[in-house]
Amino acid sequence: MCCFYLCSIMRERVQLQSISCVVIVTAAAEAGFCLTPWIPFNTHCFRLIRTLNTWSDAQRQCRKIGGDLASVHSIEDQSFLISQSGYASTDEIWIGLNDGKSEGLFEWADHSTVSFTSWEYGKPDVSSEIKDCVLIRGENGNWVDRMCNEKHEFICMKMSTSTPSGEEVSKDIGCKYGWRRQNSYCYFIVTKPKSFPEAEADCKSYNSYLADVSKGVDNAFLVSLVGMRPEKHFWIGLTNQKNINRFVWTNKDKVTFTNWNVVMPGHHKGCVAMTTGVFAGLWDVLPCTNTLGYICKQLAEGAGLTTVPPTFTPDYCAKNWTPLRSSEYCIKEFSQTKERRTWFEARDFCRAIGGDLVSIHSYVQLQQVRTAFTSMWIGLSAPDPTTGFVWSDGSPLQYQHWLTGQPDNRNNVQSCVEIMMKWHHYTDGSWNDVRCEKTNGWTCQIAKGVTPNPLPTRVPPAYSQTLNGWLKWNGNEYSIVLDRMSIEQARQHCKKKNSDLVSITSEAESILLWNLISTHERLFWIGLTVDLNKTAIWMDGSPVVFQMWEKNQPHFLNNDEHCVAMSSVTECWHNLNCGFENYAICKRSSGKTYIAAAPTVSPIGGCPANWTKLASGCYKFVNKENATWDGARTHCKAMGGNLASIDSKSTQAFLTVAMVEAPTTDLWIGLISINKQPYYWTNGQAVKYTNFQPDMFHHRHHSYFEKPELNPSKPVERECFVMSTNVKSGIGTWAKKSCNERCGYICLRNVDPLIPDNVKPIIYTDYVPVINDTFRVNTQEMSWNAAKRFCESEGAKLASLRNEWAKSYSHMMSLNLNTPLWIGLNRKATGGYFRFIDGFDLTTIAWDHFQPRAGYHCVYVNQEGKWQTGDCDRKMASLCIKSTDVPPTRSTYRGVCPQYQSPRMHSSEHYSWIPFKDYCYLFVIRTVDWSDASVSCARLGATLASIEDPSEQEFIKRNIFIYSNSYRSFWIGLYRTLSGMWQWVDKTPVDYTNWGTDSSFTSGAINSEDGQWTSDSEHSSKPYVCKVPKILPQAPQTVRPTTVRQTGTSSSVTLAVTLSICLAAVAIVIIVFVVKKVWLPHTISI
Predict the structure, then answer these.
(1) Domains of the chain
(2) For this UniProt entry, which segments traverse the membrane (predicted)?
(3) CA–CA–CA angle 357, 361, 362 (5° rounding)
């Protein structure tokens, strides 16, 4: 190959200011000379002969004219044949490759070395027919083995000569010196590296442009020019600098052909360059600042632009098909059917009815195609692992809309593309590459005016279903468990069904299971455990012959992730802490025996010295030596246990009571969170119970979908937890701390069956001091009033449970005695609402479900630590308290509250008005909509409550907090006017607010848990709060002491009160009517 350096001025060129010295490749020296009609290339001459012959006859014909059937030794040779020899994409042309001498061992007819191949996908194939000879066909000229007695056209090859004879084929007519002609255009190869903008400007200075590629044969021609060049890339004129999702040529917008490299174009933004070498002709997206060689293009002198004659395209679609905007196609979605297909099955379905899977070439089309369902196949795939994505209909890939981070070809098995639902968390119809074997819905396209063929028969599923709902495949049965549970619970569930957690022993089995779970978007437990050295074992004893780990998995962030789950989204496996709660897959195989789940029996045994037993566990409190969380876990493991997990309120109460005896330091427990993921117990137990400090209650819900991508270079962020000794936030509550702080800790181990269990529950019969309080359990069973008198006889009160420790202590005593305990709550004794009888308000509650009950006034603690109301005459044990704390002082306000009478006939409701300052309040535990609540209050001469200041806010919050376990919020008297302003129904100025969230709804409510205000639909059902001014005592009047006068005065007062109530009720009803009218749709008549 020879090169000439063209400096300063080139023949037929006036200006070269942008190029100081350009390297161009000339073809004459490398091609040699050939007599017409032979075409020179790379020291050889080629001739396409259009007569039909068998392979042997074709070889004889070539040899008669001094050559042989053509051999192809490089991508350049291949590209030359399909772009310059006269070959057309519809041809089938014999070449010199065959395996006639030895089956499967192909050789060239001219005995040259086989150093390059370009087989069609799936070729050569195994067949009963003897296919020893090879031809090229299709747009890319790929190779196919065929029977040698078939008749086809052929191409001959011979050596070129070094000197011309004058009868050579004229080439590059109409092109400047150094330019090469293909059809109507001339191309110029520049090897001096420049950035994309510089190359574009330089081509313009030649009155040309960076080359565009309109079809495959043009791409092949360029490969024949640069394919074996030492440079790795050459710029062509394609770019997506303006819009990452859309590629355009520098000289025009329309893209009619693309030839992307592996994983291209993906989520890359930049400029496009053609590769050279083994994979020459593929396109990469590179930074536009890279300096590369480049290819310029211009119209040949005397050549005219080829105009394609207009073709008539029908503008109608078959029934139930929709026109695809800016295209010649109609589309139809097949996602609504229950049938789901793999990508290839979906493509074949579309082709069977006369179309193909849909291709998308603009954002407008994307908006039309994107599905309302989970996911759907489109026609994009990468069937050849050595090239990039292509549309199945052969159209160019110039527009894309990938999900962030996609395509990623995870585990090198994802080569087909799905479009995600529009309201999915991926959103906006983004594209995602997945396994082609996944089953999805799909969308077909068909040319306008074409009537679709009848639908092909349904593809039978790869599995069958048994009568009891198990899925049968290949001698195995599977059950998909859609209840979230820990690995231990999941395995017990499977064993109860005479099975075990699934073992996966082949890729086919993995694909089957993935398709069964792919619509659920969760992690599913499988029966694999993995050790810290990454050794894996199937729980059912199956050999580990197949694995499908996620990228960077297994990965031990906290050295306690020993269980494995499969992702329903990616099919890949993640190692997790065994306490996470996921779905699961059970499996049973024919001929395999499964051990049935044993009944749950608490282990028998005792605890070592200095350990305390509760249920089947032994606990040890270490509060005299501090350690980090990791150090504490190491110490606990050294003693045969782990940092403690807390699985119930009873365990929490036990630990709280125990730690209060020496509350000197916070104590580490085994709860931890990694990288903001849900909390879990390091010993692998499920998180069944939590006791976070109040300000952490909404910090994070325990839900788990997908383990995030792991970046080994990114530091792990951990959150560790202690049982707190802080009195203000609550002794025993769980608080977050840096894992590197040094604290005491609590260890947990199983009971030892070799140690006798001789520990009995401790019952304290004397007063037990805790901070400012002392408690005593009265084991004598008596009524609530008798219990009250008993405590008072000892200078105490029935217990007020004003903090977490007091609640835990009462719980433990009730549990140890196996009996409920009366406490100091009786609303009949405190004015009809719940307040501790020693004068303290309820600042913390523990009501059981559906408590407190109407008609019952006295309260006890049950064995689960919950509060329940009961008959005050019922006999049970009780809890007394002596305290140095002083209850709050209550201001006295004049006036009394009215007697409650239910507005409903024959009602059994029992409510009492509760006084606060100058008003009385009624908390009605009956759910109605806002309007009915307003009317109900009006019938009582009241209104839905307004809230005027923080003290009133706190009073209402305290009283509705009692019901927070059962009701999320209560109606109050706020409503939104037509102008969007909030008003109180009793006309109180809205000069104090406590909004949490205010949506577009029209009625106001107060949250039972935190007291914040929110808006809701007036049609929602909630309990409500009424408010009425206190009734002031009548001033003494001087009247004659006659019966008639007294009767008259009484009648007048009664009449006045009655009239006032009626007028108030009418006013409220009018407001309600106005509010409803404002917000109801209006009908306008003209």
Answers:
(1) 39-159 (3.10.100.10), 180-299 (3.10.100.10), 322-447 (3.10.100.10), 464-589 (3.10.100.10), 612-694+716-750 (3.10.100.10), 768-883 (3.10.100.10), 914-1029 (3.10.100.10)
(2) 1053-1075
(3) 130
